[in-house]
Amino acid sequence: MSGELQFYLVAVPAVIVLGLSKGGFTGLSSLAMPMMSLVISPVRAAAIVLPVLIVQDWVSVWAFRRDFSPRNLVILIPASMIGVAAGWLLAAHVSEDVVRMAVGVISIAFVAYMLIRDRLGLAPVATPGVPTGLLWGSLAGFTSFISHAGAPPFQVYVMPQNLKPRVFAGTATMFFAAVNLIKLPPYLMLGQFSRENLTLSALLIPVAVLSTFAGVWLVRRVSADRFYAIILVITFLIGAKLIYDAVPALV
Question: What is the pTM of this model?
Fold first, then answer.
């Protein structure tokens, strides 16, 4: 099997996963990078994926233009700039496996926290807090820059607020659309946008747009309880996958 065919056999499902995530199933996007890293280097995969993400953002921002939490965005977007700047400065020094491990541990710890919280009947967060928003927003910006895996830190901060599914999805959409634009200049300065990579991005964009609309359609038809249950399962599976991938390289 040729390397090009292997790339598309993995890249097309990865982009579909990205589209479903952009359509509202936030968290699925963290699976795309590990999938593409099976056939190309993680750095090149990140460069190919970023333009695809930005096009998907245009679709999802339009779809959720009336459904988002302004307060969350006012707190999280400036915080993400700190994380993106840190990711750019440390890009050459931080192992991607360390980032995978950290994101995986955060993901699983978050699922455990949510299950314990629900079991004990603890009250959900009434309003987004600024100090915690700065922490998790910075982490989301950092992990998003390194490996497009900003969803788990975002979910740790936003999910306990028990937003309506469309507001949760819309807030995630607006936040990551902003983060992806913030990431463009650092990626350009790192020389990641070659003609070959941009050509591959362009070929994947039609699949990205169609799968984003599919995600929007599904979110509108899933109940709130089922929606959050799906997100928790996805988050746990992502965390387990990231840890599984990171452990062999770190031990």
Answer: 0.73
